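#onboarding

Welcome to the new folks! Below is a worked example of what a typical request in this channel looks like: someone posts a single protein sequence, and someone else replies with the predicted structure as tokens. Don't worry about understanding the tokens yet, we'll cover that in week two.

Example request:
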Amino acid sequence: MQIVNTYTLNPGQCHLCAGNRTPVIDTLRDIDRHGWEGRLYICFECAGGMAQLIGWAPPDKHEDMVELAASLKKKNTALEKKVASLKKFEEAVKELA
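Example response:
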């Protein structure tokens, strides 16, 4: 597969939506079945929709999620330290009782 800026072969449209937006993914596959003959192209919009269906995120959202994960990891580490400190405090109180 490759990304191209023009539809060089027929039918010159996205196989899924029949649109002709560019750039487009050229699958490098030629087909002749079910009334469709020619190169199989998939536009970015359709490819993005398929990616979302299987749980993939666009690059900008992925970066946001990576940053959020790092922030949550730091907060989790701080909370784990507080829990450890509270456990020590709890043990000390039990020894006094």
